[in-house]
Amino acid sequence: QVQLVESRGGLVQAGGSLKLSCTASGRTFSTNAMGWFRLAPGKERDFVAGIWNGGRTYYADSVKGRFTIPRDNAKNTLYLQMNSLKPEDTAVYYCAASGSSYAGPAREAYTYWGQGTQVTVSS
């Protein structure tokens, strides 16, 4: 059984940083696309960042230059490093994994999902 387990989020002041992790079990995803999405109140679950096989990364415009998405294949773990956080980054963050080496920003491209973790940025 495949599981994606995110680390606990938290409460951060605006301008601060937070690093989320997502550890996969049940199979390896070293050659698969993985990504982060977020769900804010009143909005849909939006794409945040993705990493494809080979290490190519892709970011939503709203987080470009502030977030990065490194991965450690030896640990089967994906990260989301969030810097210069803003109140509008407040959301539940979800880790996702695709069955393919490339997935793109669409939710439908991802097969496996974590349970979500709350990140709150105070002003």
Record the SSE blueprint.
Blueprint: E1 3-6, E2 10-13, E3 18-25, E4 34-39, E5 45-51, E6 57-59, E7 67-68, E8 71-72, E9 77-82, E10 91-97, E11 112-113, E12 117-122
Parallel strand pairs: 2-12
Antiparallel strand pairs: 1-3, 3-9, 4-5, 4-10, 5-6, 7-9, 8-9, 10-11, 10-12
Descriptive report:
The structure is a single chain. The chain is mostly beta strands and 123 residues long. 0% of the residues lie in helices and 46% in strands. The chain is built from no helices and twelve strands. Strands 2, 4, 5, 6, 10, 11 and 12 form a seven-stranded mixed β-sheet that branches. Strands 1, 3, 7, 8 and 9 form a five-stranded antiparallel β-sheet that branches.
What is the string of SSEs from the N terminus onward? EEEEEEEEEEEE
Biggest pleated sheet: 7 strands, mixed
> How many DSSP-defined strands?
12
On the 0 to 100 scale, the average pLDDT is 96
Radius of gyration: 13 Å
Specify the overall morphology: globular
Concise summary:
By secondary structure, the chain is mainly β. The protein has no helices and 12 strands.
What key phrases describe this protein's structure?
123 residues, mainly beta, 5-stranded antiparallel sheet, 0% helix, globular
